[in-house]
Amino acid sequence: MIGARSQDEFVAARGADWKELDRLLSSGESLHKLDGATISRAAALYRSLCTDLMRCRAARVTPDLAAHLDGLAGRAHAALYGAQPFRIPGVLAFFARDFPRALRANGRLFAVACALFFLPFAVGLLGALASDDFSTRVMPAQALEEMAKGYSQGFAGGRDAGTDTGMAGFYVYNNVGIAFRCFATGILYGAGSLFFLVYNGLVTGTAVGYVMSVGHGGNIWTFMCGHAPFELTAIVIAGGAGLQMGYALVATEGLTRVTSLRRAAPAIARQILGAASMLLIAALLEGFWSPSSLPAPIKWTASGVFSLLVVLYLALVGRADAASPVAPAAPAALSEARS
Asked: Which has the closest alpha carbon to 3: 57, 55, 60?
């Protein structure tokens, strides 16, 4: 007996929900790709199934019914909570649609991040060109002198392969660290992202301006031109994602802060993963291309091509698939179901 009902009566009363859940799991398409209402329904059916399963175990139902419900519960749990398998089409869809569209949806805060980085960059650059005292107020004199020395000879002779490989690893570490600080500190209601964008823009501009002021501007700009379109853009994207995270904590639209942040999380995550990919490209270029002995005109031509590709990619890619929302309801609903 299950409560006041026999096993047959219990199966008759609850069997329709079990069959509905089974149909959802057997549809042939991953649950996370379905619409939000369907995922919410599957989550509700799974919770009811868990209750049914506990009642059946307590009532000592027949082994075949218990095994059937156990198997159904396991499939539902895996579909709702299991990690999705790695698929090449999914990666291609991310770069061909999800990342650039998530960035465009955050366009206003991305523009704010650009201003917060590049305006201080210009201030640092012009200030360093105008006065050495300005430079030493922003950066230690020893660091400035080491930078000037590093760019004094240029890269006409290139670097050995071992040094290039080691420096590529350093650039990954350094650039990811900068971008991470610009993003992660956005949890402080956006204040941390604002600070690190301004700080890194000012420091970068000051360093470039100082090297220019001692006569090595051509060397540092030729070195930077190849990887800067990827590196600086990625840092600003990370900062914009941090501002979006802070904004979600402030403008909750009546939701709790956790729920508001959870709602924005898919779009934020897409931007961070995209920025990380750009930083990897930048590190490889900075490690192997930028210090190479290739003539400056080739490097500047490549820089122009890279810059154009970055702009076109972020501005245009994924627009043809306008019917799909940037932050699809399915992952959001799935997150709510999990909570």
From this structure: 55
